[in-house]
Each structure stands twice: as C-alpha cells, then as structure tokens.
Amino acid sequence: MQISTLLAFAALIAVAAPVTAQQQAKPKPEDTEVWEPVPKVVTPGATCNAPPSDAIVLFDGKNLDEWVSAQDKSPAKWIVADGIMTVSKAPGVGNIETKRSFKNYQLHVEWRIPENITGSDQARGNSGVFLASTGPGDAGYELQVLDSYNNKTYVNGQAGSIYKQGIPLVNPNRKPGEWQTYDVVWTAPTFNDDGTLKTPAYVTVLFNGVLVQNHFELRGQTLYVGKPFYKKYDAAPIKLQAHGDKSEPLSYRNIWIRGLN
C-alpha cells in the first residue's frame, strides 16, 4: 500500500473516532431520573384552607390550648366563641403566642376586621402575625394585619406588608366583615457561632390567594422606629398581636402550620 493511501486511511479513522465516541455517549432519559428518597405521602385537606394530614393545628375554633400569654406564659385569655378567637381588650391581657417554637414552616392564618370598624390609618383593626417572636424586648418579625380596604396608610405598613420593610406587590384586601387569608412560607435566618448573620430570613406570602411577598429578604427585625438588624435566635414561637388601639378588635380562625426541614 502506498504511503499516501495509508495517510489518507489514518486521517479517515481520526475523523471517525470522535463521531463514534459521541454516539456512544449519547444521553438517555434514565440518566437524569431520580428514584430515591421517595417523598412521604401527605393527605391534603378537604378544601384548600383545611389543614393537611401533617399539619399542627394551632387553632380549630374550640380552645386556646396551643397558646399562652406572650408576656408571662400564662394561659392565653383571648375570647373564643362560635369557632373564632377575638383579641381581648381587657387590661393586662395583651399579645398571645404559641406554646411551641418553630424554625422553617408553612403557615395558614385567617383573620377578619369587624364590619363596623372605625378609625383610620394604623388605628383601624391593627394587629399582626409575628412570624418569629424572638423574646422579651425584641421586635420580632411581623406580617402586618390591618384594614387596608379604602384606608390610606404608609405602604410598608398596610396589610400584607412585612412591617416597615416589604411593601406588598398588590393590595388584595376584602371589605371589613369578610374573612381574609394569609398563607406564608417562612425561612428563618441562620447565624454563625459568634452571633453574626450567616443567611437572612426570607418570606413568601399569599394574601387571599394572591402573591404579595415573593421570597422577600428581610433586613432584620421589623422595628417601629429605627433601622432593622438581626439578633441571633434559633426557633421561636409565632405571636398574634393585641395592638391596643381603640377600634373594634379583630378575630382569627383556622390556624395551622407545617414544619419544613
């Protein structure tokens, strides 16, 4: 065989080899299929608002067994009647919080502003869902509750806001007298051993089924005055606020939570 023929044959093999390798490495659907671990089975509630099978029911309309006074940890003294609990305006009662502490979770809360509400601005059915009540003297992390249906106030303090930080994407408030719903996904902040922040808190909120906070990154506790900052904590109770304004007190019902790993 002539040398020129041998060189041509070698060149042909060199060109064909990568093609053969590519054919052998052709991906298959099975290459990206993951079979384990298998997610556990959870039975959903009969309606979209009902607790799923793995939820902890924090209020089912019967009692306040899952709640204590945020001030002194004594039994909660809000008013329970007709399947709902109503903020008590009695002297010394104040805020209530869960007996249990939570870190990362999915939370469902329903609340109602009285139909005959009076007042304006922040003095109109003011309350709050504190997503982490981190201790006496701490502001915690508040998702604002307020009548924001035709009620002008500062936008980072209206219903659906992360108080003084996260302005709601939209305002889906219903009229006073109608039940409102919060569905929350809370990712707690994490801290280094020396107390410095490792990762911030994030929150997603659907308000009456409408997205108002989209994986919002908090800058720290939700302060009434001053700039937010973080203070180290691990797990914390969830707190409901008795704001103390003169407008008619609001009510809560159907509260449940699912811990997230």
Number of strands: 15
Protein structure class:
mainly beta
Q: Measured on Cα atoms, how large is the radius of gyration?
A: 27 Å
Could you state the order of secondary-structure elements as H and E? HEEEEEEEEEEEEEEE
The total count of helices amounts to 1
Identify the overall geometry. globular
**Proportion of residues in extended strands:** 25-35%
State the end-to-end distance.
71 Å
Biggest β-sheet description: 8 strands, antiparallel
Helicity level: under 10%
The mean pLDDT is 89
Unreliable spans are: none
Could you characterize the architecture of this molecule?
- This protein is mainly β and 261 residues long.
- Helix content is 8%, strand content 28%.
- It is built from one helix and 15 strands.
- Strands 1, 3, 4, 6, 9, 12, 13 and 15 form an eight-stranded antiparallel beta sheet that branches. The chain has a five-stranded antiparallel beta sheet with strand order 2-5-14-7-8, with no helix packed on it. The protein has a two-stranded antiparallel ribbon with strand order 10-11.
- A hairpin with a 5-residue loop joins strand 10 and strand 11.
- The radius of gyration is 27 Å and the shape is globular.
